[in-house]
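Exercise: predict the structure of this protein bound to zinc ion.
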Amino acid sequence: MSDNGMVQCRVCKMWWDYITHTHLKQHGMTCADYQEEYPEAPMQGSNFVDFRVSPLRDRVQSEETIDRRMEGLRQWWDSTEGLAQRKDMSDHPLRSRR
Ligand SMILES: [Zn+2]
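Solution:
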């Protein structure tokens, strides 16, 4: 059913990494319609499920890590603690004299 890690659309018999809402729309169906019509048909191939162990994994993970760090920095920046630390830095005599 899903050898090669892909999933077959039961309507058009095409193979996909996963079956999208947009694709089903071409058949005049919603995801719910499709699952009702083919209850045992998977919506995602194992390619999709295993995406995080694919060669893209490292890149994706590092992007996620950067995003998380940036988010943390942004939260710190907006927090009162961050504000106080920034104030300390700008009020520091050595710094302000440079
Ligand atoms: Zn199809």
